[in-house]
Amino acid sequence: MAKSDSGLRVVPMASELRVELERWFDRLGERGLYSPESPVLSTKGGTPMVPQYIWKVVKRVAKQAGVEASPHTLSRTFGSHLLNEGMRLETVSKLLGHSNVSTTQAAYAQLEDATVRDEFMRFIA
Fold this sequence. Notes:
The protein has 125 residues and is mostly helical. 58% of the residues lie in helices and 0% in strands.
């Protein structure tokens, strides 16, 4: 789901993911379901998948993996992981599509105790 006025968000991706996306687009193309104008997560008709459908898919796959997850928990885990690994709050905020850094700070800045200790020790050393 887009979180900008234009409906578009630029998200950087690892080269490994690009290869997998290109492979996926090739598979869709073989079935006549690919269009460069279509959203990445689209229906057979080329329209964007609705958030409720994506939520159901994530829940189903998580259950098969034996874990509890939703798109929201995946986002929170991703954001918290990046912050705990030392990524700047502003960068995480932009990646998550938040229009205001305070949204990210309030919801995602759950630093692990080890992160706080390590950062403190680097600061005083």
